Amino acid sequence: MPAPNIDTIVSLAKRRGFVFPSSEVYGGLGSAWDYGPLGVELCNNVKQSWWRWLVYERDDIEGIDSSIILNRLVWKYSGHEATFNDWLIDCRKCKGRFRADKIVDNKCPSCGASDWTEARPFNTMLQTKLGAVADDDPAALAYLRPETAQGIFINFLNVQTTMRRKLPFGIAQVGKSFRNEVTPGNFILRTREFEQMEMEYFVSPSDDHWKLVDYWVEQYVEWFGSLGINRENLDLYEVPEDERAHYSKRTVDIMYRYFPEREKPWEELMGIAWRTDFDLSAHSKNKLDAEGKRINPDSTEDLSYFDEPTKQRFYPHVLEPAAGVNRTVLAVLMDAYSEKTNDKGETRVILKLTPQLAPIKAAILPLAKNKPEIVGMAKAIKRSLQPVLRAVYDDTGGIGKLYARQDEIGTPFCVTVDHQSLEDEAVTVRDRDTWEQERIKVSELADHLQKRLKPYPVTAPE
Ligand code: ATP
Question: How many other CB atoms are there within 10 angstroms of residue 119's CB atom?
Answer without folding.
Answer: 16
